[in-house]
Amino acid sequence: MDKLEFLNVLGRVLARELPQEEVLSNVAYYRNYIEQQVSRGRSEEEVLRELGDPRLIARTILDVDQQKEEDPNGRYDGFGGYAGYDTDTETVYTQEADGRETYSSGPERSKNPRSWFGGRLKVYGFGWREWLILFLAVAVIFLVLGTVFAVLWRLLPVILLIWLVLWLYRRFFS
User: Fold this and answer.
1) pLDDT-above-90 percentage for the chain
2) What pTM does this model have?
3) 11, 52 contact by CB (below 8 A)
4) How far apart are the first and last CA of the chain?
5) 3-state secondary structure of 56
6) Which residue of 108, 125, 155, 172 is surrounded by the most CB atoms within 10 Å?
């Protein structure tokens, strides 16, 4: 993905829910940011990889815009939070070097230097290790259930015999 494609995707997603003026402002911000980083000697690909998916950036911008609209007192501080309020609800997307996507939340900005809003909450995509753990967990569950049903299957004649005796006793001797 190049800069133009990145900015087009960002603009298209934002245009669905924001006025044109805000869309242009956000696209201009990211265009300037990319150009500034490239002028400092970084490659365009490196900057775009650091920024991550433009759809997720747009989602973050739209979430902040929605918070501005929902604030009845107009106390939005313009930096992802509200003056006098805790900003723990703010969530930001970053993409790690190993390809994992990270969502960070909270006011502790210094803990996650790749995120503007800090990092208490992290949600990762499934890699091969997570799939292996999931597979092993499902295998253990099936093994346990299989063992329980195997034992019950072997005990079924005894259980049926006891049930039949109790039924006959109640039917004829009660």
Assistant:
1) 47
2) 0.43
3) no
4) 82
5) helix
6) 108
For 138-147, write each residue's pLDDT tens digit: 999 999 999 9
**3-class SS of residue 114:** coil
Distance CA 132, CA 126 (A): 10
Q: How far apart are CA 126 and CA 99, in angstroms?
A: 11
> Is 101 a residue whose pLDDT tops 60?
no
The average pLDDT across 155-164 equals 94
Q: pLDDT digit string (tens) for 119-142?
A: 444 445 567 888 899 999 999 999
**In the chain, domain spans:** 1-70
Radius of gyration of the chain (CA): 28
Cβ atoms within 10 Å, residue 91: 19
| Tokens found for residue 101 | 């996507």
Q: How far is CA 135 from CA 45, 99, 125, 143, 168, in A?
A: 36, 22, 16, 12, 47
Which residues does residue 102 pair with via DSSP β-bridges, in sequence order?
94
